[in-house]
Amino acid sequence: LFSIIVFGCISNKGYLTDESGKEYCLYNKDTNACNYGVGIGVLAFLACIGFLAGEYLFEQMSSVKTRKHYVLLDLG
Fold first, then answer.
1. DSSP assigned state of 20
2. Sign of CA dihedral 57, 58, 63, 69
3. Where does the MARVEL domain lie (predicted)?
């Protein structure tokens, strides 16, 4: 949920327009800062979807080794 909030806030209000009509990033006028925030938000959302899919499929995992790896990934 927080990844969607971060992504939405930066992509919606993270850019301002100067007098010449050119957009710049709100964070120190550095587009890399906005791109980093959006990228982290997208990666966190994809990781969240992956963990939700893993929780859904956990009971169907037949290998104990696979379950162990998933639990360690979830804890780490």
1. T
2. positive
3. 1-76
- At residue 25, the 3 state secondary structure works out as strand
Over residues 7-66, the pLDDT tens digits come to: 888 878 888 888 888 888 888 888 888 888 888 888 988 988 988 888 898 888 888 888
Whose tokens are 């993270």? That residue is 14
Distance of CA 45 to the CA centre of its chain: 4
Cα(59)–Cα(32) distance, integer angstroms? 42
- Confidence (pLDDT) at 60: 84
Amino acid at 51: F
- Strand, helix or coil for residue 22: coil
Task: Please report, for residues 11, 24, 35, 39, 54, the alpha-carbon distance to residue 17 in angstroms, rounded to integers and kept in the order given.
Answer: 14, 6, 17, 22, 42
Number of structural domains in the chain: 1
State yes or no: pLDDT of 1 exceeds 80: no
